[in-house]
Design goal:
- The longest helix has 14 residues, at 337-350.
- The protein is mainly beta.
- 5% of the residues lie in helices and 43% in strands.
- It folds into four domains: 5-203; 211-314, Immunoglobulins (Immunoglobulin-like); 324-427 and 452-502 and 514-546, no CATH class; 567-600, no CATH class.
- The strands form ten sheets. The protein has a seven-stranded mixed β-sheet with strand order 2-8-7-10-5-12-13, with no helix packed on it. Strands 17, 19, 20, 21, 23, 24 and 25 form a seven-stranded mixed β-sheet that branches. Strands 31, 34, 35, 37 and 38 form a five-stranded antiparallel β-sheet that branches.
- The radius of gyration is 28 Å and the shape is flat.
Length: 601
């Protein structure tokens, strides 16, 4: 596809597409009529919406650089499990810009048609009845599939050049066929770009009950305790999942069947369900297996009905409150980035309790670069999916992979992401101090780290970010007038962090940031992060905890006094724990969790 371009910046931000693979079978009737679009047609009893379902993060648009007519389709094989025995009652499709359309038709054909009007079924839609985003249209004559192989598609003409072909998700064979009046004159399969945003409303078929859980990562639990493990469940059946029955197996010993309610999960949809697990009877790491036996009281017929993970049981497990690292990808060339920045700022100002547990770092990368871009920020675009397509604005929350493919998500839902992470306890803690040197040419940083157990499958690392606030933009797109950048990344100790050298689950890490004289000293912050790092897997780099320090002017003193706070533990500068003051710089963690640096003469 020489002239087809993938638009990596998500253009359509006001609506969320829900698309699905369309499959249909041909009939001998050719029908040409005009009908009004039916908005949001619900699936009644005995019906189901089937096809490709996209999250907001997956949706994009393809297109060419000229205005022309596009034919888009998906192939449904004969005897399809869902479609073959069904009647197609309606179609759901996605429209990028309704005002840019001059013609729109939906159609079904046994073969890819040379002329759309010669397809087995054709229905013309009044473009004035279409809206931006998801549109439902009822077929004037329901289409009986009879287990035939069919193509289902839509054809439209745009008045001005635009990225208008709605698609997304991973590669699936036969999920996107394309032709255009000028740029792509012959039908081509372009499924490598993604799947066409299209759904079918099916009726009368035999629809199995299916719930498929995804494998889960390792978790830790204390002896005699229970823990709720978040597990992703996908619905492959016609009926919304409302409850499941399941068993758990720990080290080969299976539990009795239990039943629990779940969030409502529609066909093709997924939801995260917290499944309770009990600790093993002894310390150690064992395999645990979840088996979903029933869905809404009926036998689960999914081919994959089990999920596996590992459970580590500890006699003494220590945890701390979790602070959340937010990383934003933004540039001055990004039109939607000011809106994202405003949304983040609004979340922080209206949720002070959550905001106090948030550290923010902005990478000026993802959609071109600008004068604030540093090498580290460009390297971090690896998180989009090991160097795949990038866009801005985009965010990472603790580098956690919400969809399982990449930690990067689109703007919005700030509170939900932060709340979800903040509710989880952390297995590591950071007490962070930062002090200017005498002439403010450098910042000396000390991070006193603790861990409750060896939580990382790769050596845990510490990353220090130096950020600056209140930087006036030079030429920010998407705003009228001035714009001020916040949380701009200025420097980092090591792009992927330095391996932490633990001693009895404690460690002290020291680092010095050399400062640029153009940076405003009063607007600098230091962010410390303990995380995993797996160079082969962007989803295995989760942040375990974070801390923020505002650099202070260091004053050497001989001692200290306090009324209510006492010394808890003392270290030398090289990280050795000591029981009494030693000459030189002593690092002292106080009983209230604060850290002091004391110069002993």
């Amino acid at each position: 596809m020489k002239q087809l371009l993938l638009l990596v910046t998500i253009l359509l931000t006001t609506v969320v597409a829900q698309a699905q693979v369309l499959r249909v079978a041909p009939q001998k009737e050719v029908m040409k009529s005009s009908a009004s679009v039916m908005k949001a047609i619900p699936a009644a009893d005995g019906q189901m919406w089937w096809g490709y379902f996209f999250s907001n993060e997956e949706l994009g648009c393809l297109g060419t650089r000229i205005a022309e007519t596009y034919d888009c389709a998906i192939f449904v094989p004969a005897n399809h499990e869902y479609v073959g025995s069904s009647t197609i009652k309606a179609l759901r499709f996605y429209v990028a810009s309704a005002s840019n359309l001059s013609m729109f038709k939906v159609w079904i054909s046994k073969e890819l048609p040379t002329s759309i009007d010669n397809a087995d079924y054709v229905q013309e839609i009044n473009v004035l009845s279409l809206a931006n985003g998801s549109n439902d249209v009822e077929l004037n004559t329901p289409y009986v599939v009879n287990n035939a192989a069919i193509y289902v598609g839509f054809t439209y003409t745009i008045k001005e050049a635009a990225y208008s072909i709605p698609m997304g998700g991973d590669f699936v064979a036969n999920s996107l066929y394309l032709r255009s009046s000028t740029s792509v004159p012959d039908w081509e399969s372009v499924s490598s770009y993604g799947k066409l945003a299209l759904q079918l409303l099916l009726e009368g078929g035999t629809y199995p009950t299916k719930a498929s859980p995804s494998d889960f990562k390792s978790f830790v639990i204390g002896l005699g305790q229970s823990i709720a493990v978040p597990i992703t469940i996908t619905n492959g059946g016609v009926t919304d999942i409302k409850n499941i029955s399941y068993t758990t197996s720990i080290n080969g010993k299976e539990s009795t069947e239990k039943t629990m309610d779940t969030p409502s999960i529609p066909f093709g949809g997924t939801a995260t369900v917290d499944i309770p697990f009990e600790a093993d009877a002894v310390e150690g790491t064992v395999e645990v297996v979840l088996t979903i036996t029933k869905v809404n009281g009926k036998a689960n017929t999914a081919s994959k009905k089990t999920a596996r993970g590992q459970m580590t049981t500890l006699a003494n497990m220590k945890v701390w409150p979790r602070n959340v690292l937010i990383e934003e990808f933004t540039t001055e060339k990004c039109v939607f980035c000011p809106d994202a920045a405003a949304g983040l700022a609004s979340f922080m100002s209206t949720n002070p309790n959550l905001a106090s547990r948030v550290a923010v770092v902005c990478h000026h990368a993802g959609y071109y670069t600008d004068w604030l871009t540093i090498d580290a920020s460009e390297r971090y675009t690896w998180f989009y999916n090991n160097g795949g397509s990038v866009y801005a604005p985009a965010f990472m929350y603790d580098r956690y992979a919400w969809e399982g493919k990449t930690p990067v998500v689109s703007r919005g839902n700030y509170e939900e992401y932060v709340q979800t992470r903040a509710e989880e306890s952390s297995y590591a803690n950071i007490n962070l101090t930062a002090n200017f040197n005498a002439n403010k040419s450098a910042i000396n940083v000390t991070a006193c780290c603790e861990r409750g157990w060896d939580f990382s499958s790769t050596p845990a690392r510490i990353t220090l970010f130096l950020t600056e606030d209140n930087i006036n933009a030079r030429s920010q797109s998407g705003v009228d007038g001035s714009f001020v950048h916040q949380h701009v990344l200025r420097s980092v100790n090591d792009i992927w962090g330095e391996v932490i050298n633990w001693s009895n689950d404690n460690a002290i890490y020291n680092y010095t940031f050399n400062l640029n004289s153009s940076w405003k000293m009063d607007d600098l912050k230091v962010v410390a992060v303990i995380s995993c790092y797996d160079r082969s897997d962007a989803t295995n780099c989760i942040v375990e905890n974070a801390a923020v320090a505002i650099p202070e002017t260091y004053l050497g003193i001989d001692g200290y006094s306090t009324d209510d706070v006492r010394e808890a533990v003392r270290y030398t500068l090289d990280g050795r724990q000591i029981g009494a003051p030693q000459r030189g710089l002593n690092i002292i963690r106080m009983s209230d969790g604060t850290v002091k640096k004391i110069l002993v003469k």
